[in-house]
Sequence to fold (248 residues):
Amino acid sequence: MTVRQYGSAVALAALLTLSTGAVAEETLPPLSAEQRAQIESVVHDYLVSHPEVLIEAAQAMEEKRQAEAARTVARISSEILNDPHTPSRFGPAEGEVKHTLIEFFDYNCTYCKQARPLIEDFAGKHGVKVYYVEFPVLSPLSAEASLIGMALFEESQEKYFIYQDFLMARMEKLDSRATLKEAVEKAGGDFDALMEKAKGEALQNSVGSNIDRGRAIGVPGVPFFIVDGKPLRGGVTSLEVLEGLLNK
Fold:
């Protein structure tokens, strides 16, 4: 076999090695500098003659990336849905859960607040159970609000949602602890006790886990939704957007 023939035989392997950085030299005979140069020439000539190969490789790489992203979203979604520290509530008063919606939110997120009425309508209309992921990324006071909320959730889910609904109904930015204290008092909680509890390692870890999960699936900001396993970035302006993600 001539060097040229040998080069043709391994052109595809060489292409993969050059394009992905994969190392597979242990499976091939050692090459001299001259042989390597000739193989590279074969690869170059082949790609010039068949540029569609690069397009196909790029498409395959993108499909692989999307498949891996989908698997990560599915894994993180499962963790959230099965985490007892994730606050959740069901849209209809009665009936079976038909769909799930996970919302990453921040108490300082205007778009989260604007979307809240639509989320509630969506949940009631389609039998959706909503899971709320405290994702404080906008300010230090956001983090404090989340920790207090999670501390309140450990005491009572009912109190937690009174607290959460009060803060999410306010379109103004959180600018002081006085607002947090007012929300806690509305919910019937002890603000000083909750502040102390919020310093605990368990709650810090719980909120930290939310941040880690968001990073794992590439949450770019809030709001971020996962409807029946399908991610939706950005604000929601209509029910149709959410309904388009439902598993029919």
Summary: The radius of gyration is 26 Å. Residues 41 and 109 are 56 Å apart (CA to CA).
